[in-house]
Amino acid sequence: MLKRLVQGAVYLGLLASSVLGFGYTTSGNSIVVTTDGGLTFTVDKTSGDITSMVFNGIETQDSSKRSQIASGIGATCTPTQTGNSNNYVKITCVAGSLTQYYVAKYKDPAIHMATYITAEPSVGELRFISRLKKSAVSSGYAVSEIAGGTAIEGSDVFKVGSATRSKFYSSKQFIDDQVHGASGNGVGVYMVIPGNGYEASSGGPFFRDINNQGGEIDLYSVIVIQNSGHTQTESNRMGLHGPYALWFTSGSAPSTFGESLIDLNTSFWEGLSVTGLVPQSQRGRVTGKASGIASSFSNYQTIGFSNSAAQYWVRTDSSGAFTSPYMKPGTYTMTLYKVELAVASQSVTVSAGGTATSNIASTESNPSSIWQIGDFDGTPRGFLNADKIETMHPSDSRMSSWGPATFTVGNSVSSFPMALFKAVGAVKINFSLTSSQIGARTLQIATTLAFAGGRPSVVVNNWNGPAPAAPSQPDSRGVTRGTWRGNNIMYTVSIPSGTLVAGSNSITINVISGSSGDMYLSPNFVFDALRLY
Ligand SMILES: *[C@@H]1O[C@H](CO)[C@@H](O)[C@H](O)[C@H]1NC(C)=O
Ligand SMILES: *[C@@H]1O[C@H](CO)[C@@H](O)[C@H](O)[C@H]1NC(C)=O
């Protein structure tokens, strides 16, 4: 009897240290996974869709639409219980050029995921959409809650009461987008993108894309965008996207994973035979120091790395020092950003297990100016409506009037419009010069994005400036769906001697384009800064 009890205890102990309650069962087309962390989820093995996600007894999955990669991939799925003490369930869903991995880790209230592609999905974006039951997961981003609204632009910008709303307004720049989600009574659902989770995405550190939409009916989406055509400045990257995770809590956002949020430890993936995964031991780093950026920007310096296979970034410390994430081996273009403006670029090669040293110095020219409006930092921050544009449509009644505007040099730049729309009209800049400031001068107009070929053409007093060629910018709406992040383009105008006069002068900036459009969809561009020197 005693022996039997002892044996029983040993047996139970063994079970507890492996996977008591943890594992999967199959029933018809359903693979039902119990994480033993409060979450049970179901994957349809004939499609790869998630059909149920029950956390602490609360069903969070919408019943009419499924959670899925792309818009559903029609995959065939195979489950295995694997890894250390069988502490992992891996479901591999294969559909042609796309493989979606769902992984449960013993005790994690999470669906760990990674997505391997050799071609862009036909839906044109690679994204995971969690379609959550709105009665259970009721609050996401207020700026993206469109229930009861009327579409005012495309099928994605709405007016709800007097406020404009859009799924695009939930976006965060990749460099700051480690967790986003939605919650309800007793439950929170969060997409977690750890350190290198965006390495196979596109657009760089300051790219923003949809995180959330509160829908008309029973629909709540928490989305990780991996590749999309939303004001995208780069080509899509193939290979393994992620790992990322859908994490369940009793409400608030997960703030730690035993370590820090950003460092959700994904190294267990290395033991799971995942196509395209490059283990840390096969990666390398870059360390160095950035220099040459004015001290007022010392806390806003970022180093980006990119090649056709991967992208990475790291913020420097205030002295300019940085150490990159663990990167795939290869040769990268390394870029120094002053806020969002590229001010230096060079090549660096990363080898497996190595740490390369690569210092980088700003090559930005800083001519001494007669006047300057705004900061040359690759953003319109500080200008009129720039504080609102990321979460409101330009037509929103909470916006200040766009113009036509007259700006007198010396006034607060918060009255200078962040964007110029052809249908709104020109901005006129008034300024005085002394007799020693006249003669041949240079005007620079820096822009961050344009739509429908919009670019600046100037009239200086009575002199008509040149008509620049159409800019190379993403072929996509931009500022009307809450972003200024395109290609930073500088226009330089040589003002001939005899144009500027001692006393009052004016420069009128118009939008020119061969295209047309209504109001805020008329050709437009976003200002970064201007200077006369
Ligand atoms: C991450 O997890 C692995 C086991 O999967 C462990 O060996 C490693 O120490 C962990 N790293 C950190 C930083 O905790
Ligand atoms: C600004 O423009 C107005 C009208 O064009 C003009 O009367 C005024 O003198 C200008 N002010 C300056 C400071 O140049």
From TrEMBL:
Keywords: Carbohydrate metabolism, Cell wall biogenesis/degradation, Disulfide bond, Lyase, Polysaccharide degradation, Secreted, Signal
Enzyme Commission designation: 4.2.2.23
First-listed, main subcellular location of the protein, grouped into a coarse class: secreted
GO molecular function: carbohydrate binding; rhamnogalacturonan endolyase activity
Any one cellular-component term (Gene Ontology): extracellular region
InterPro entries in the cross-refs: Carb-bd-like_fold, Gal_mutarotase_sf_dom, Galactose-bd-like_sf, GH-type_carb-bd, RG-lyase_II, RG-lyase_III, Rhamnogalacturonase_B, RhgB_N
Residues annotated as domain Rhamnogalacturonan lyase: 282-357, 370-532
Main EC class the enzyme belongs to: lyase
Catalytic activity annotation: Endotype eliminative cleavage of L-alpha-rhamnopyranosyl-(1->4)-alpha-D-galactopyranosyluronic acid bonds of rhamnogalacturonan I domains in ramified hairy regions of pectin leaving L-rhamnopyranose at the reducing end and 4-deoxy-4,5-unsaturated D-galactopyranosyluronic acid at the non-reducing end
Any GO BP: pectin catabolic process
Domain Rhamnogalacturonase B N-terminal: 22-276
Gene3D superfamilies linked to this entry: 2.70.98.10, Carboxypeptidase-like, regulatory domain, Galactose-binding domain-like
Parts forming coiled coils: none
Subcellular location: Secreted
Family to which the UniProt record says this protein belongs: Belongs to the polysaccharide lyase 4 family.
Name this polypeptide is given: rhamnogalacturonan endolyase
Organism this protein belongs to: Crepidotus variabilis
